[in-house]
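ok trying this again, last paste got cut off
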Amino acid sequence: MVFPSRKNLEAGGIVVSDQKDRLLEYCKAFIKEQRITCPETIGQCDWVILNAYAFIEGVCDIVGYAETEDEEGGE
């Protein structure tokens, strides 16, 4: 499953000016694509959970990944 990149969002007429807007559009696209119409859809439709892995990776691509202890200046 491929969710919209910034380039694809903008090509579709959606102006993505910053990270928050991009994340919001990404989430909306996932909800629409997965046909999530209520909380029960998440628990009752296996495809939502199966596609959540790619969705989470996409969120991290937009927001960023956690720093490791080495990057944080830890011991």
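PB: full thing came through this time. Helices lie at 6-11, 19-33, 39-44, 46-63.
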